[in-house]
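Morning!

This is the sequence you dropped in the shared folder:
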Amino acid sequence: MTENTAASDNKLASAAAAEKCRVTDRSEFEEIARESMQRLYAHAAVITGSKQDAEDAAADAIYRLLIRKKPFESREHAKAWLIRVTVNGALKMKNRQRRFSGEDSAAENLSVEFEYPEQSEVMEAVMKLDSGSRAVIMLFYFEDYSVKEIGRILKISPSAVTSRLSRARGRLKEMLKGDYFNE
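The structure's back. Tokens below.
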């Protein structure tokens, strides 16, 4: 097989894979939306601190998925894109809220159930952080994004992500001092 034939076969395989990831099939759209909705809501809630704003940001991301024309590389790419759109939407809402109220409020009483009590204690501490710190903590620790990927999602430099992570860890360490740290 020649290089041209191999390259042509790879292009055909890539085109076929991309076609599969185009969310044009109603059942595929519903499946991706159903699989992602709770996670999208959780991200938006952590950032906005508001149940209604979180629902709006998650619903907006699902709507954007519905109207998107460009195909995804894979289902995982589609899910990552949804998280990015949700996080960006939630951050815009939070910034608008801050401009009008002049403050970065902590989360209202959002009901999230955890398997272990320690998880709820840690999440309560995370919710006390400012929205920028909450976003990087959620993306880094809960979604396993790299510093570089978080920078792309939040449209900040990797060094800014590292700085926010460091400050957030310090604040969390201070809040959870007696419970989780031997100091």
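Headline: Residues 113-183 form a domain with the Arc Repressor Mutant, subunit A fold (CATH 1.10.10.10).

More detail when I'm at my desk.
O.
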